[in-house]
Design goal:
- With 527 residues, the chain is an alpha/beta fold.
- It contains 19 helices and nine strands.
- Strands 1, 2, 3, 4, 5, 6, 7, 8 and 9 form a nine-stranded mixed β-sheet that branches.
- Helix 3 runs antiparallel to helix 4 and helix 15 (423-439) packs antiparallel against helix 16 (445-461).
């Protein structure tokens, strides 16, 4: 009989990036790269495990903005164009490398990988990958969670409870619209929790959420079992804490598995390495070099010298690392079981995009790990948070402390010198949204459309991604542009609604561009 549990939790999220007025838009590539690098490989792993009768349980969140993009016909058609270009590029690479024994097998690997991605995306799922995840959920092998509507950073929205409640309820409703059921669990954006947030979760029917380690360890009274058992908030919503030991083995830049020298180097890409005229049809139309996904080198070492990627070596490393991870969890759970006198649960949450996109071999590592857990040990089994609660309904009651999984564990990433200017606009817009919902409790026709679009603009403005990008200095100009655009668009709608001078042309333009959450109801913001 097993002595404990392991819950693998993957958080899938991208900000809503959709620009129908541009044929090519650089930031839309974030979505296309994640489809090819992460979502299709993960679907492949889950399908193989299911069809080969390997017992497994995985928890997966799909944020409402990511779901909206996956379901969008425009982005679906653009992804097909994107993958067709990669297939063409990889065909050229097959010809270019045909006499190179080190690189030609890799060129063939990429060609076959891109062709397979097109087949999965188009032929198996008709362009909508949400169908795959809904099937997995209905089979019972995958527990799907939701997220706040646009990944709003809830601790810094707490001054307006209506705005917090709307983020959560819209997230739950979108989950039900896409997957047919209300969600049991929620991934709090950035694992951001503040005391009292759980009451909003309970009101929306949420039964559990994930917090960072210190959010649970600093609870009052202090949890008897640390992060190795959930606690019940007084609202009767359960909180599961992240295990630092299992996280470090995967996340750590210095000690984590993805840094192994046998693995593929993310940063050495053909889009930067090859002659500009040769790669021009496969990069940005303005000649901006970008990642194409064709990467020929392994990490090799800490310097600039890189050796060709060897797929066999990388797979051997992934299998060894999966075995090491399992061995460490066995020893950890055996020890905890002896100390606690009950079965511990190890909660290991990660960003899904780490697997495949950043860590190329990550999906295979998951595949190896699941198989090893199923057949090579009997110390623990895979579970999900809701399954654990059904089997272990009696847990300590405590009050969590404020926490995030960001740098230093609190709000610093999303509230500092580069991004603090945005919050006065977020708070003002949220107050105005509540004002309009209270003033027009039963609007119809054009006014109702305008109020619903104002809610969409507010939600997009609240996305935590913009503050994060400003802090990390990655695509700062784009994050500032999106923030200021949503402020301006919301403000114009507010002024037109209150003056009863709504421009149907302007409203249609916004509805066509920012078209997420088609069933949104502005009345969620009523006091």
């Amino acid at each position: 009989m097993e002595k404990g549990y392991l819950a693998l939790v993957l958080h899938s999220h991208l900000p809503f990036v959709r620009h129908p007025d541009h044929i090519e838009f650089l930031e839309e590539d974030w979505f296309y790269e994640a489809i090819t690098g992460t979502y299709i490989p993960l679907i492949g792993v889950i399908e193989r495990l299911y069809h080969e009768n390997v017992p497994f349980r995985i928890t997966l969140s799909i944020s409402p903005t990511l779901a909206a993009m996956m379901a969008d016909p425009l982005l679906q058609s653009r992804y097909l164009s994107h993958i067709e270009r990669l297939i063409e590029f990889s065909q050229k690479e097959l010809h270019r490398t045909e006499k190179d024994p080190a690189f030609h097998p890799l060129a063939r690997m990429y060609f076959e990988r891109f062709v397979h991605a097109r087949y999965v995306f188009s032929d198996l799922y008709g362009g909508n990958l949400l169908k795959a995840f809904r099937t997995f959920s209905e089979r019972g092998s995958v527990e799907l969670m939701t997220c706040a509507a646009t990944h709003g950073f809830l601790p810094l929205m707490s001054v307006n409870p209506n705005a917090v409640r709307a983020q959560i309820e819209i997230g739950a409703r979108e989950h039900e619209r896409h997957f047919g059921v209300r969600p049991n669990g929620i991934w709090l954006p950035e694992c951001g929790y503040y005391p009292g947030l759980d009451a909003h979760l309970a009101a929306c029917g949420i039964r559990y959420f994930i917090v960072d380690t210190h959010g649970l360890l600093h609870a009052a009274p202090r949890p008897k079992y640390g992060v190795y058992a959930p606690i019940w908030c007084r609202s009767r919503v359960a909180a599961f804490g992240r295990d630092t030991e299992s996280s470090k083995q995967v996340w750590s830049a210095n000690e984590g598995y993805p840094g192994d020298y046998a693995y593929r180097d993310f940063y050495r890409d053909a889009g930067f390495d090859l002659d500009l005229d040769y790669v021009r049809p496969y990069i940005h139309p303005d000649g901006i070099r970008i990642h194409t996904g064709i990467k020929y080198y392994r990490i090799t070492g800490k310097g600039n010298y890189k050796e060709p990627y060897n797929r066999g070596w990388a797979m051997a490393a992934a299998a060894a690392h999966a075995g090491n991870f399992m061995f460490n969890r066995e020893r950890q759970i055996e020890h905890l079981n002896g100390v606690m006198g009950k079965k511990p649960i190890i909660v290991a949450p990660y960003d899904a995009e780490l697997f495949g996109h950043w860590w190329f071999e990550g999906p295979e590592w998951i595949d190896y790990l699941v198989r090893k857990v199923a057949f090579d040990q009997n110390t623990f089994r895979l579970t999900t948070p809701i399954e654990y609660l059904r089997e272990n309904p009696k847990n300590q009651v405590a009050t969590l402390s404020m926490s995030t999984w960001g740098y230093k564990g609190y709000n610093e990433v999303w509230l500092e010198g580069s991004n603090d200017w945005i919050y006065r606009h977020l708070h003002k817009a949220a107050d105005r949204m509540v004002e309009m919902a209270d003033r027009f409790p039963s609007a119809e026709g054009l006014k109702r459309r305008a109020l619903n679009q104002a809610a969409r603009e507010l939600l997009l403005l609240q996305a935590s991604d913009w503050a994060f990008i400003m802090k990390t200095q990655t695509a700062v100009s784009y994050a500032i542009k999106r923030t200021t655009e949503h402020i301006a668009q919301f403000t114009r709608l507010y002024e037109e609604i209150l003056s009863d001078r709504i421009s149907d042309i302007y409203l249609k333009e916004l509805e066509g561009r920012n078209n997420l959450f088609p069933e949104i109801d502005y009345r969620l913001y009523k006091s």
